[in-house]
């Protein structure tokens, strides 16, 4: 029974239950509370949509009567089997009793890397033979990245090992509506394939399409939608899950706050003025995305007010995205109308 439970937890974890942190400096003690949605009320084609100025509404799916799940950022010293992860920066704990499991992360430069999973059982769930990139930041619309790693673990003297390949792209932006409110978001498509062996004999594979909606001011996705297929010992099973953040991640650090962006006039015909707080100038970058998804401006910011001539730009709805040196970020749309 334990063997089945451990396998289930491991592959469920790889299928994207985690909420990877956007900010480069998550704080110990921070917590994230999320609520499961009824995915029957979510249209997969809406989640898969790509492009600009989109609208997603998952509020009709919030009908499941269930206690929200909470995950915590914890210090490595409070985690079981911490000696297996000497290079870890923090862990995310899911569950509060002896059945809790932990995802272990490392911060390196502009990356967050997953090192493996752990729990309170005698066996370690998994240790990756090399770190697996989960997020590169700052993340702007159109950015993409990929990675690969191998992993191994033992259960009842049987050796499980395999390879994970991922590819991610920030492929859409727009507004997401949940029961908690409406958010300006960038959608990251996270796609992975997992091949695994048992005692060096091919045993199965898993594919995952995960869509994660990030909003300024939140260090975890506002919404995660997962669709996975698991092939194990010749049997195929499919699973779809969705959950949304019911409250902001609790932390004291100011770098969790969003950058306030002002654009005027809006709509605009000729000259657009973009302004941000003066204390956020140093090291900030600005991108402007056109209605067709092109990044028509991508530059450093050296002053709090930017004046841009848009008289030769086509009519439509555009996006301004600004990311500061301390990883705060903001989104603001504007319309060119003639």
Q: How far apart are the first and last residues' alpha carbons, in Å? A: 67 Å
Number of E strands: 20
Overall pLDDT: 85
* Strand proportion: over 45%
How many structurally independent domains? 2
Q: What is the global morphology?
A: globular
Question: How much helical structure, as a percent, in the residues?
Answer: under 10%
Main pleated-sheet profile? 12 strands, antiparallel, barrel
H/I helix tally: 2
Spatially, the strands of the biggest sheet line up as 1-3-4-5-6-7-8-9-10-11-12-13
Class inferred from helices and paired strands: mainly beta
Q: What is the helix/strand order?
A: HEHEEEEEEEEEEEEEEEEEEE
Unreliable runs: 1-9, 15-24
Task: Explain what you see.
By secondary structure, this protein is mainly β. It has two domains: 2-245; 258-336, Immunoglobulin-like (Sandwich). It is built from two helices and 20 strands. It has a twelve-stranded antiparallel barrel. A four-stranded antiparallel β-sheet has the order 17-16-19-20, with no helix packed on it. The longest helix is centred in the N-terminal third of the chain and has 16 residues, at 2-17. It starts with a helix and ends with a strand. The relative contact order is 0.16. The model is unreliable at 1-9 and 15-24 (pLDDT under 50).
What's this, in brief?
With 338 residues, the protein is mainly beta. The chain has helices at residues 2-17, 44-48, and strands spanning 31-36, 51-57, 69-74, 90-94, 101-108, 111-119, 126-136, 144-155, 158-178, 181-198, 201-214, 223-232, 235-245, 262-264, 271-275, 285-289, 295-300, 305-309, 316-323, 329-336.
């Amino acid at each position: 029974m334990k063997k089945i439970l451990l396998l289930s937890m491991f592959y469920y974890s790889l299928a994207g239950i985690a909420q990877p942190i956007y900010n480069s400096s998550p704080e110990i003690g921070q917590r994230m509370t999320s609520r499961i949605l009824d995915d029957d009320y979510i249209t997969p084609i809406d989640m898969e949509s790509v492009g600009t100025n989109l609208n997603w509404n998952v509020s009709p799916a919030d009908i499941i009567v269930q206690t929200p799940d909470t995950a915590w950022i914890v210090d490595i010293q409070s985690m079981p089997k911490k000696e297996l992860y000497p290079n870890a920066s923090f862990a995310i704990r899911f569950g509060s009793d002896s059945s809790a499991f932990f995802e272990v992360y490392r911060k390196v430069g502009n990356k967050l890397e997953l090192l493996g999973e752990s729990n309170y059982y005698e066996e370690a769930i998994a240790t990756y033979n090399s770190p697996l990139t989960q997020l590169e930041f700052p993340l702007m619309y159109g950015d993409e990245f990929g990675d690969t790693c191998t992993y191994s673990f033992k259960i009842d003297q049987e050796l499980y090992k395999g390879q994970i390949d991922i590819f991610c792209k920030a492929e859409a932006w727009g507004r997401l509506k949940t029961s908690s409110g409406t958010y300006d978001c960038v959608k990251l498509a996270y796609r992975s394939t997992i091949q695994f062996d048992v005692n060096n004999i091919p045993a199965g594979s898993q594919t995952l399409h995960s869509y994660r909606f990030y909003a300024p001011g939140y260090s975890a996705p506002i919404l995660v939608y997962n669709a996975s297929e698991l092939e194990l010992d010749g049997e195929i099973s499919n699973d779809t899950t969705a959950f949304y953040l019911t409250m902001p991640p609790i932390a004291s650090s100011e770098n969790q706050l969003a950058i306030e962006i002002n654009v005027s006039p809006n709509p605009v015909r000729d000259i657009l003025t973009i302004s941000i707080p003066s204390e956020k100038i140093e090291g900030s970058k600005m991108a402007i995305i056109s209605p067709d998804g092109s990044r028509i401006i991508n530059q450093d910011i050296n002053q709090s007010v930017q004046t841009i001539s848009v008289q030769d730009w086509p009519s439509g709805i555009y996006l301004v995205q600004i990311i500061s040196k301390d990883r705060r970020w903001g989104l603001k749309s504007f319309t060119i109308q003639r």
